[in-house]
Amino acid sequence: MADAVNKKETITVDVLLYGPIAAYGGGTHIAEVKMTMPQGVLFRDVLSQLGIPAEAKGYVFINAVLCDAPGLNASEQLQIQADDHIGIFSGTHMWPYQYRDGVRMSDELQAVLREKGAMHHSYESVAQDE
């Protein structure tokens, strides 16, 4: 009985990786990873466990709710729940503007967007053929 009390509860989540970051889940273009993690885990811990650098992350959806966008890091402190479905897109993948209007967003992302303004695509550098 003491072992059951000392055993930390775990949760299972389903993570889908799209684009070049699929390589962190063993894929080429898309990867699906089932993860067992401690209860109370944060989104940033999911990225860390997968080895994905925060700057490689683009759009993030959790249970079909937009929770983050490239460069905003609004989802770092989100607590992940059992059976969550997490979609993480590579920072190189854009989300067409016409699909953004009326999308369900997390409270955290809404707060960041109120502070920073409308959602934009950002490109730090673009390699060009000469």
How would you characterize the overall build of this protein?
This protein has a five-stranded mixed β-sheet with strand order 2-1-5-3-4. The protein is an alpha+beta fold. β3 and β4 (65-68) form a beta hairpin. The chain is globular and about 40 Å long. The chain is 18% helix and 26% strand. It has one domain (9-116): Ubiquitin-like (UB roll) (Roll), CATH 3.10.20.
Quick structural summary:
Helices cover 18% and strands 26% of the residues. By secondary structure, it is α+β, with helices and mostly antiparallel strands.
* Major sheet attributes: 5 strands, mixed
Low-confidence runs of at least 5 consecutive residues: 1-6, 122-130
Treating each run of at least 4 consecutive H or I residues as one helix, how many helices? 3
Structural class determined from secondary elements: alpha+beta
Helix content percent band: 10-25%
Query: What is the CATH topology?
Result: Ubiquitin-like (UB roll)
- How would you write the strand order of the largest sheet? 2-1-5-3-4
Layout of secondary structure:
Elements: H1 2-6, E1 10-18, E2 30-38, H2 43-50, E3 57-62, E4 65-68, E5 85-90, H3 107-116
Parallel strand pairs: 1-5
Antiparallel strand pairs: 1-2, 3-4, 3-5
